[in-house]
# Entry
Amino acid sequence: MGLTGLEIFKQLPKKNCKECGQPTCLAFAMQLAAGKASLDACPYVSDAAREALDSASAPPIALIKIGAGEKALELGNETVLFRHEKRFEHPTAVTIQVSDNEDVKAKVEKINKLVFELVGQIHQVSMVAVANDSGDASKFADAVKTAQENTAYPLLLISSDVAAIEAALEVAGANKPVVYAADENNYEAMVNAAKKYDAPLVVKGNDLESLAALVEKVAALGYKNLILDSGARETSKVLQDQTQIRRQALKLFRPFGYPTIAFANNADPIVESLNASAFTAKYAGIVVVNSAEPQHILPILTLRLNVYTDPQKPIAVESKVYEILNPGPDAPVLITTNFSLSYFCVAGDTEGARQPAYIVTVDTDGISVLTAWAAGKFTPETIADTVKNLGVMDKVNHKKIIIPGGVAVLSGKTAELTGLEVIVGPGESAGLPSFFKKQWNQ
Ligand code: SF4
# Structure
């Protein structure tokens, strides 16, 4: 995506003075293109060339920072259209909207309680939006103050009234909320308000064309801490716009080189949840909903987890001894890898069989049993070390461990290294209930 050496060379002073440490300007350009040198090493680059090179070498989608403290988040820096090409960098910020006409404290407290455990990880929403439905600037500022006092989530301030945004920013500006929105009519004043606090500003168009034109006007005012709203609200149009913006941004069309926001709000919470899921899949940086009910939020967060998981980095659980159903000293000791799916399958089928057990997860960098075996990470040595280091055999009154059926070939050497009886379990965890019945509890 970056510039080629020759493109950079055209912008250099061509003095060949060697002060940058390179024999020629061309050699220096090649180093820059490879990311191995900094433009600062050449004292003769003109300001115009520096600006051109800086903006040309900027990432296709800007990195935007939102909020302060432990729940601060980042959006943007995306480099691909499809996850399998590399990965998606920053998960969609799922945002729940609160009206300044409702009991803000009660709804924010409800939002705070939306905490879900999925594949051993905690998942939550990302932001709280406060909407100025009352049309009253001081009521809006009060609502923002209440929201800020009752949640650690970053805020999204929604009002087209610049005075209301200014009042809200006086309350919350230091915590870098997102300002929504600069449009054709108010953009100069909105830019000034957001700039004062370096708060990310949403630029809202009526369609893609007007959006691009407005972003250029805003950028000309010297503000690039931006998020984009194409103005579309109909589901299929939002998806089209989101996809176009991402495509164009990756082709380095600079007005679209920012994260996006999509509003999924719908009177029917099921429709809202579906819309939000669609926008999370394609390519919203922020998605806004009204419902704070767990049954409407869980599907969105589950989909977000799936879409934003790095395909090159499996989800891992901690390497440790997991205790299933309060096991006693006669409970079986099951060995598996710390690939989360391996662990959850073994744990689920053990629990389903109502069999108290110890599950030991060997650290295989989160890869599954057979792959880890092929990669030399699930071996008699790693199994023996893990069993010893975690002290699992101190918890039981027997000397048996059970290894997955797929790696039966490891049993002899593992027995030799551990001094334990190594029982070969079923090839699939679904076979555990009958295995326990026939081979453990007979
Ligand atoms: Fe060229 Fe600048 Fe290096 Fe001199 S310092 S050789 S002008 S790139």
Observations:
- Residues 364 and 375 are 9 Å apart (CA to CA).
- Residues 64-307 form a domain with the TIM Barrel fold (CATH 3.20.20.20).
- Residues 12-13, 15-20, 22, 25, 28, 42, 44 surround iron/sulfur cluster (CB under 6 Å).
